[in-house]
C-alpha cells in the first residue's frame, strides 16, 4: 500500500467540493413550493433570487386553525389507513385556512406522550388533535380529561369524554357489498385480465390482520355478503397476526386459492400485498381494503374492487368543523354507507369487466342497507 | 483501578492481561505502547495500531473527551445531513438559510429540540411531562443495559434481552392483576410492586437461563438461541395477550388494565402516571449492586474470569458451565425487571408491541463499556434522545426517519471509540495483522 500518493488534503478538498456540488444539485428546497405549509414562522431567506418568491406566510396569528395529527403506529406510507387520514387533512388544509403538523409514534406507549405534547403546546396552540387508530383510545381516555380545553378527535374507537369527538365506521356494511361481489362472481365463470374464476368453486377467502373485534367486523360483513349472494359458498378465514407481514399474507392466500377459492378479501394492511401477489401467481382475484387499492398498489390486474373506508372524510369533517367553530366534542359518530363512510369501488382495470347484472344487484343491496332493509351483522357468528 | 474490587487473593486481571472495562492500565502493560511516542516515519498501519493502543490506554478523562468530541462530530455531520435533506424536500418558506440558500429544516432547532427538548421547560417546571418521558425511558434502559453488560462480562452475548423483557412484563402484569383483588390501598402498593418486580425477574431469569444452559451444556451458540427465543417470546406473548388473557373491553391486544394502586408510586410527577423517580432510584441502586456483585464477590470473580479466559477459569476452579447459566439467568432477570418496570410505570398493563428496549440495551451496554454504573449514563443519553426525538417530531417538519438517522449517528459516534477499545483490549492486533513492535514493554509498562 503506497500511501505517499494519497494526499489527505487533496482528499478532503475533493470531498468538500463533491459535497458542495451535491448540495447545490439538490432539486428541492424552499422555493419549489409544496403542500407542507405548516412551518409558519420561517425566516425569510436572505438575498437569493430564487427564494424571493418564498414569501413569509403570515400564519402565526390566531385566525389560522392548527391541527395536530398523531398517526397510528406503522406511520405514513402504509398505502392504507394512515395515508388515508393524511389525505383528509391535506384536503382540509387546501380548502380551509388551516395548517397542520404530523407525528408518527412508533409504539403504543408513546401515544400519550404525543397527545400530551400537542395538548400542552402553546406555540402554536393546536385547536384540534387528531388521533388516528383505535390503539390510541386508552391513552386518549387518560389524556383528554387532563386538558379539558383541548379538542380531540379519534378515528376507529369511541372515547367517552366531553372534549373528544369519536368516529367509527360500519366496515361490515362495505364488506357486505364486496362479499356479495365475491359470492356472485365465484358462482359463475368469470374471467378478466389474466385471471378467472372456476365457476364451480364453493368457497372464497378472507385474510385478516391482527385478530380483533374491529377486523371481525370486516369478516362478519364479508361473510354475510357472500352468503346473501349464494348460500352454498363457504368463507375460509385466516388471521395472520400482523398488519405488516406480506409473506404471511401470501402463504395464507396461496393455501386458500389452492383449496379452491377464487377470490380473497383482505383486511390486513400491508399484509394484503402478499394476498395480491398470491392472486397474481395463481391467476385468481383479490379484493382490496381501506382505499382503492387498484390505484394505490401495483396490482390492478387482480383487484376486482376495494372496500374503501373514508378515514379522510372523518378527518376532513372534524378539521372543517373546527375551522367553522362547529366542532361537536363529546359525540360519537358511526359512518356507514349512508354517510359515505364506507363504500365499494370497482378496480380501475377490472371493474369495467364485471357484469352489469352483478353490479346492479350490489347496487340494490347498497340501497337496501341504507334504507335499513338489510341489517348487516357486525360480528361473526 | 486494577484491584478496586479488593480481590487480594488473585485478581485475574493481573494474570490475563485485561478485563473489559478496566483495561486502561493493564493493556498498557501488555502492549507497552508509549503514548504519544509514535515516530514520524512509521507506516500507516503501525500508526493505526499505535492509535488503537493509545485508545486502549486512555484515561477516564481522555475517554470522556473522546466521547465529547465524537458527539460534536456526529452533530456536525448531522447538521450537514439536515441541510441536505432540507434541500431535497420542498416547502413554501425556508426554515433556515445559510449563505443565501434556503433550507427546509433548521438544524439548530432540530438539535436544540433533540437534546434540550427531553428536559422540557426544565427551569420553569422541572417535573414537566417531557422530562417524565425521559425518566421513564431511561429507567427501563438502565435495566436492559445492565442485563446485557452482565452477560457480556461472562463472555456471553445476550441478544435475547427483548424476549426476556417481554416475558417479564407479561408475567408481571398477569401476576399483579391476579393479586390486585386481594389487597388494596397503600398496602397493595407495598405488596404488589415488589411482587410484580419479583415475578418479572423470575420469569425473565428463566427465559435467560435457557440459552445459558444450552450454551453451557450443549454448546449451542447463544447468539442464535437468544435471537430465536426473542421470536418465541413475542409470538407467545401475542397469543396470550390476544387470546386467553385479553382485555375483553379493548380492541387492542392487551391484558386488563392494572388498578392505580398496583403501579409504581410517582410522588413527584403530578398528573403523569408514567414516570417514577422511585423506579429510577431502584434502577440506580440495582446498577450499583450489580457493579459490586461483579467486582466484590466471588460470584463476580467467577463471571469475570470465565468471560476473559474460560480455560484459565476452569483451571482455577471455576465451574464455567454453571457460571454461564447463572450469569445468563441474572441477565435475564434484570431484563425481566426492566419489563416489570415498563408495565408498572409506563404501560399500566401488558400490551403487544413493546418498544425495542432489549435491543437498545445492547447499545447502551456497549456505550457504557459494559460497566453497570456506566449504563446509567448511557441509558440517560438514550432516554434523552428518545424523548427529544418526540419533541422534534411534533415541533418541526423533519420526518421521523431523519431523526432516527441523527440519533443513530450520535450513538454510533459515541460508541465507536468504546467499541475499538473493546477490540483493542481483547485482540492483539499486531500479532494478528502484523506490524512492527518497536515500543516494547521492557520497562514493565507504565501505570497511567
Automatic annotation (TrEMBL), chain A:
GO CC annotation terms, alphabetical = plasma membrane
| Subcellular compartments | Cell membrane
Q: Read off the InterPro entries from this record.
A: BMP_lipoprotein, Peripla_BP_I, PnrA-like, TAT_signal
In which residue ranges is the amino acid composition biased (Gly residues)? 25-35
Give TM segment ranges. none
Q: Where is this region: Disordered?
A: 20-71, 361-381
- The answer, when asked if Nucleus is one of the entry's keywords, is no
Q: Which residue ranges have biased composition labelled Acidic residues?
A: 36-56
Could you tell me the membrane topology recorded for this protein? Lipid-anchor
Q: Which CDD domains does the entry mention?
A: PBP1_PrnA-like
Q: Which family does the UniProt entry place this protein in?
A: Belongs to the BMP lipoprotein family.
> What name has this protein been given in UniProt?
BMP family protein
TrEMBL record, chain B:
GO CC terms, sorted: plasma membrane
Question: Known Pfam families for this protein?
Answer: BPD_transp_2
Region span, Disordered: 1-45
Keyword flag Transmembrane:
yes
Query: What subcellular locations does the record give?
Result: Cell membrane
The source's superkingdom equals: Archaea
Could you tell me which InterPro entries the record lists for this protein?
Answer: ABC_transp_permease
Which membrane topology term applies here? Multi-pass membrane protein
Where is this chain compositionally biased, Acidic residues type? 1-14
The keyword Mitochondrion appears for this protein: no
Q: Which UniProt keywords apply?
A: Cell membrane, Membrane, Transmembrane, Transmembrane helix
GO molecular function, one example?
transmembrane transporter activity
Q: What coarse category fits the chief subcellular location reported for this protein?
A: membrane
Where do transmembrane segments lie in this chain? 64-84, 96-119, 131-152, 164-183, 189-210, 222-241, 275-294, 364-385
Q: What is this protein called?
A: ABC transporter permease
